[in-house]
Amino acid sequence: MKKQVSEFKKFIARGNVIDLAVGVIIGGAFSSIVTSLVNNILTPILGLILGGVDFSNLSITFRDTKIEYGAFIQSVIDFLIIAICIFIIIKFINKITHHKKKEEESAPPKKSDEVLLLEEIRDLLKEKKEEK
Fold first, then answer.
1. Judgement on whether residues 32 and 69 belong to the same structural domain of the protein
2. DSSP E strand stretches across 1-132
3. Would you say the C-alpha torsion 117, 122, 123, 129 has a positive or negative sign?
4. I need a labelling partner for 69 at 20 to 30 A (CA). Which of 1, 31, 61, 99 fits?
5. Digit-coded pLDDT (tens) for 22-47
6. Which residues pair with 50 in a beta bridge?
7. Is the domain of 27 the same as that of 60?
């Protein structure tokens, strides 16, 4: 039992598990933001563009069973809107991140004092050798 507890502590202490937990929490919070964007902003705008079409009320009654295919169509449309929003947001984040990395890479690395001193010695030795 102690060995299992020890293994569990090692498992939890690894960075991957903590990173995953943080990712899930952030993903949950981000999900509510995207859902609000879709439900409160984009869907009403699309409703205006499409003339107020709402698929969620469409259904067929077959014998005693009501098949609400409109709710499914509405869910598919919501999914596509959410997927497009996430795609645009991720693309924007990647562009910003890539731009910052590009700026960091374009700046030449600063040489340490030791390297500068060694280069100076090398240059002096070359000059001395050329004089002879």
1. no
2. 60-62, 65-67
3. positive
4. 31
5. 888 888 888 888 888 878 888 788 77
6. none
7. no
